[in-house]
């Protein structure tokens, strides 16, 4: 049995797959701890793994709002986002320090591995140096690897002082070569299949592409009666799935709802942030703060979403076509890959024209090839095999054989 410390940050797509990974590792006999946002404590504990909160619910809400404001401030600007200010306002340097301390408290020489989310999981790299433990970085999407040179530059110019101060607390020198350091994990895992990788610019050969990893347990449940009645009353609606974060704003909803109106479809709108939604909503729109996607998505005619990895994976395993209104980060690359696979159409935020979005949605709904290809690729997704492959990849870096 090994001690595995997982650290991740962000929203559902970044956290739920890590919880599922922790569940799979625990089932193989490992002692697993996950350090992430307080909101995900109940989900982690239900998975049977130890949970350490990196913030409070109030701090997490502030972090999401600040990230949204940071991105909104650079719309139409060539300047980089104020990443240093974001870190300072939300005590993210302190959070990195606390994550390293979690590893320190659980470190068992020769039997410990730390697993961090790619790019934001700097604590995994620091802990690897400080305690001599192997580090694994897990990327959610190919773009995290493709954008690494840019991220290394931003970290060197914006975040170096804060990161180096944390390193000094653990007796480590400043980072000398940021691209090399951010590429220095002992193992790189990608949570997407090889055929998804081949649909765009390939990621480096050393990335272990294990497949999509969804958290069925966290996304399952009985649909509410209002939705059950809606589904029974006519043809399948279109699901407009907003981010679990606060990254989307009015143009997304304008384009998405107009597209559904043009297609003549009822709309199921899911967003945990009602303050971000149009008010009032059109009569054909039914809003829910959340839904059990495992049961609900297969009953939709199509899904409009922002390009999050969790949502696209759920659409694929459900065999449902997708319209991706990609906002930022990895989402344009993700949308382009889905379109090349023939399971989706996509638009960047600069082209969120309601008429164009409507044309694309009608195409998705009326041309059977999109649903057929979605079902074909979805059938190739084996969630259990992905979890097993990810666990084996992590176990491969342990200095002693794992005792199962």
From TrEMBL:
Q: Which Pfam families match?
A: EryCIII-like_C (PF06722), Glyco_transf_28 (PF03033)
The record's GO molecular-function terms, alphabetically, read: hexosyltransferase activity; UDP-glycosyltransferase activity
The residue range of the signal peptide is: none
Q: Which InterPro entries is this protein grouped with? A: EryCIII-like_C, Glycosyltransferase_28, GlycoTrans_28_N, UDP_glucos_trans
Specify whether Cell cycle is a keyword of the entry.
Answer: no
Top-level taxon of the source organism? Bacteria
Q: Per the database record, which ranges form the Glycosyltransferase family 28 N-terminal domain? A: 4-62
Q: Could you tell me which residue ranges the Erythromycin biosynthesis protein CIII-like C-terminal domain spans?
A: 279-377
> Keyword set for this entry?
Transferase
Gene Ontology biological process terms, A to Z: carbohydrate metabolic process; vancomycin biosynthetic process
Query: What PANTHER family would the database entry show?
Result: STEROL 3-BETA-GLUCOSYLTRANSFERASE, STEROL 3-BETA-GLUCOSYLTRANSFERASE UGT80A2
Recorded protein name is: UDP-glucoronosyl and UDP-glucosyl transferase
Please report the organism this UniProt entry assigns to the protein. Polymorphospora rubra
